[in-house]
Amino acid sequence: MLTSAKTALLSFAVLLPLAVFLPRMPAAGVSPEYTAKGELQFPTGYRDWVYLSTGYDMSYNPALQSPGHHMFDNVFVNPDAYKSFVEKGTWPDKTMLVLEVRGGEGKGSINQKGSYQGTELMGLEVHVKDEARFPGKWAFFSFDDTKTAKMIPLTADCYSCHAAHGAVDTTFVQFYPTLLPIARAKGTLSKAYQKETGAPQGQ
Ligand code: HEC
Questions:
Q1: How big is the CA angle at 190 (ends 188 and 195), to the nearest 5 degrees?
Q2: Which residue(s) pair with 128 in the sheet?
Q3: What whole-number distance in Å separates Cα of residue 68 and Cα of residue 47?
Q4: Structure confidence at residue 121 (pLDDT)
Q5: Do residues 78 and 100 make contact, with C-beta atoms less than 8 angstroms apart?
Q6: From atom 12 of ligand 1, which residue's Cα is the shortest distance away?
Q7: The domain that contains 108 carries what CATH number?
Q8: Is any atom of ligand 1 closer than 6 Å to the C-beta of 100?
Q9: Which of 77, 82, 99 to mutate to test the pocket of ligand 1 (most atoms within 8 A of CB)?
Q10: Is residue 173 included in any domain, yes or no?
Q11: What is the model's pTM?
Q12: Which 8-state DSSP code applies to residue 62?
């Protein structure tokens, strides 16, 4: 009786803190989740993942000007994939890269010059590596809300641009400042990227 009460108390003492802290633990061990229809679930918690970079007014098209308003994009990756990239210079299965888009704000509070990011989320795209699921190993998703998104068809230009110009395995590591030196050191930069930049092959 006493023993079981003790055990019960003990397990209560052990389990309670776990129950309290588990849901708030950093997002280690996240992997893509899909609905029965194959749509990707919104990657809640991506803001706790590893931050890679912010692009400011980046454009693929030199003729495209956006007068009067500026755009930021922030890139995040799930912590497991990041750890693996640091070790090997390549992305493991179940990598998820998130690109979120925010508008630039000009004058506000004490800011007189330059731009800071607005609170409104203007877009969110995910690049997922799921080798068994997607024929090309990777797939793109674009979210209109914070629920689910359909896979973007393989004919979209997302795939061709990323495949032709992404520095590592269809991802734009050349623009992620902490990852580029790792890819260089591990010799994992794509041939196409090396050719594009005139970097010596096999380095
Ligand atoms: C003409 C080239 C081009 C096209 C087309 C393109 N992207 Fe990208 N994408 C980029 C560049 C450049 C970056 C790097 C952004 C940065 O540095 O902030 C990027 C980054 C990303 C990232 C961050 C992860 C990664 O792979 O590096 C996602 C997610 C993404 N794009 C989704 C999309 C989606 C979805 C589409 C199609 C609707 C698309 N892209 C079309 C050039 C392109």
A1: 130
A2: 96, 139
A3: 28
A4: 96
A5: no
A6: 172
A7: 3.50.70.20
A8: no
A9: 99
A10: no
A11: 0.87
A12: T
3 state DSSP class of 83: helix
Ligand 1 centre and the CA of 50: distance in Å?
17
Residue 162 lies in a domain: no
What does the block give as tokens for 109?
A: 């509070």
Q: How far apart are CA 142 and CA 125, in angstroms?
A: 4
- Residues β-bridged to residue 100: 74, 124
- Is 109 a domain residue? yes
* Range of the structural domain that residue 124 is part of: 37-154
Asked if residue 29 belongs to a domain, the reply is no
Q: What is the pLDDT of residues 95-107, one digit of tens each?
A: 999 999 999 999 9
For residue 179, the surrounding DSSP H or E stretch is none
Paired residues of 111 in beta bridges: 108
Distance CA 72, CA 67 (A): 15
Number of domains in the chain: 1
